[in-house]
Amino acid sequence: YRQAYVNIFLAHDGLGDLSEPSLCSCCGANKANLKCKDCFSDKLHCVQCSVKHHHNLPLHHLLQWNGLYFADVTLQQLGLEVHLGHLGQHCPHPEHPINDFTIVNRAHQRYQLLQSSWFPASLDRPRTAFTFDVLDTFQLLNLQGKLSAYDFYYSLNHKTDNTGVRGVQDRYHQFLTAIRIFRHIKMLKRAGRGNDPAGVDATQPGDCAVECPACPHPERNLPEGWEEAPEHIKWLYCLIITIDANFCLKLKEKGIKDDPAIGDGWAHWVSSKPYHAYISKYGHQVEPNICNSDLKAADHTHSKFSKAYRSTGVGGCLCGRHTLVGKLRDLQKGERYANMDFIVLSTLIGTFMLALTISYDICCQWSRNLAKCMPQFPPFMQISKDRLRTAKFVLGGVGHCFAWHVRVSFGFYFNF
């Protein structure tokens, strides 16, 4: 159902089946170019009818068609005035307002629900739906305020029935399903997958990932002749990535066997099947530790401190200039080189490399046998020996003793 869902989302942003606005469906006299984001009906109305219909709904959000797209417009701009103190009726002697007010408000079979801006909680026979507005609101609160789905849902539940005497039906698990699918559909829409003639199902790994716009991209933001840049400015066109792991992002083993990914590998998360196949085959390889440091990344690469966790952390690559995320994947133990190798090479697929710089706090240890491990990967993931030979591997400056700094400085620091 992905393609149909994305098509309906795109139709909400335009005129739907119309090529241009028609006459107002209410009065039939004026041109209809306004629609309300909060009203149930998605029909277009003229200015006069929109203001009339929203006399008692002054907080609704309207959109106005400007010939190219729907732009935000306020009811105040359309001429609506709110007369206070008369139970919603017009004041017989009104005064013109002198100030503008900013108001923050939280408003109290499948395709038909989507066309009405209601997101179904299930696909086959939906009996529960969530408004697009409530899903968008949770998305913002979750990203900005780190609010959990549990706290958000039960806050709305308490707003409906704060005493618990009305017996509001619990739809928390349906909300989790809906927000997960909603985010997936929005990701496809924003990545332009709905406009691909081949359809959504033609999406390839990484197509929905957000690339760093400031990093060098050929034929996008590089000047002519950048390939022939002299040595003293070649660093401007160098690809810089940083590698690290976060062991606070753990996942406990809950016995869930059937939890498929939606769009596996389409964004920043590495595809599951090739990743786990590689780890199963080569994850047992252990390299002797030559790094003279107190870093757990070097000392405990194959350690798993508790069997209660399905994932002990997350390894990833980031843009070394602007810290935008590249590729990520879960870890089963410590920072095993097999895991990190696969994540790094997945990040470099399809990227250009006039020069390559990789920053990692245990680069001195991790990079030693990287070239030897390269034949273990599919050809499209491999980096040539010449490129590896010219690549710059940079150490993090924390955790290594002074003697080790002196020993490796010439090979692993920018200043040398």
From TrEMBL:
Record key words, sorted: Membrane, Transmembrane, Transmembrane helix
Protein name: CxC2-like cysteine cluster KDZ transposase-associated domain-containing protein
Species whose genome carries this gene: Piloderma croceum (strain F 1598)
One Pfam family it belongs to: KDZ
CxC2-like cysteine cluster KDZ transposase-associated domain residues: 107-164
Secretion signal, residue range per the UniProt entry: none
Residues annotated as transmembrane: 342-362, 393-414
